[in-house]
Automatic annotation (TrEMBL):
<dbReference type="InterPro" id="IPR021332">
    <property type="entry name" value="DUF2944"/>
</dbReference>
<protein>
    <recommendedName>
        <fullName>DUF2946 family protein</fullName>
    </recommendedName>
</protein>
<dbReference type="Pfam" id="PF11161">
    <property type="entry name" value="DUF2944"/>
</dbReference>
Amino acid sequence: MDEQVLAAMARWPDVPAVRGWLSLSARGQWRLHPRGRGWGVPDEEPGEAITSPQILAFIGRNYLSDDAGRWFFQNGPQRVYVRLDGAPWILGMDADAQGRPQLRTHTGRDYGPVAHWWLDSGGRLYARSAQGAGLVSDRDLARVVEALRTAEGRPLDDWLERPDPAGIAVRLTGDAGTDRAGAATPLGLLADGALEATLGFVRRP
């Protein structure tokens, strides 16, 4: 968190939190809802994309969660709760210094190691790590699935065609099939309606 934000919080400790003003799309785009009607009202605003690099960087540096799994942007002394259309982190695929696959968040941070993967009935792939829950962006989904291998080093094609409810152990590997993340990680099926409880976050705080 920025030093000036911490200073503002100390100076004005009792500023009420707000909701309905900020959302994060399933593709990792921050959206502003100018009238504060982003959710919880009959006439929800679609919001306007935030494109300023300076503002995006500021939000990213001061984006946190509370103990209840509610994510927020600390805007100076005021907490601005965020509507999450996908998950707290939207994940893309990049490469590390050795050219191996590396997950990164919509804010540009490295993500992982992944403790658990989840696949829902709509084909969306979620991850859980110490940073919190992440959703693989649809733009990078095919690349991430391609980089995942079974514990025996096989592609996931056969399992994806007939997913076993018991799940499977997977690794994120490099082009040469080398182990990227150490021990194999569970990949399970996410029950409908169980997203927030399973992954520990609140979509509309």
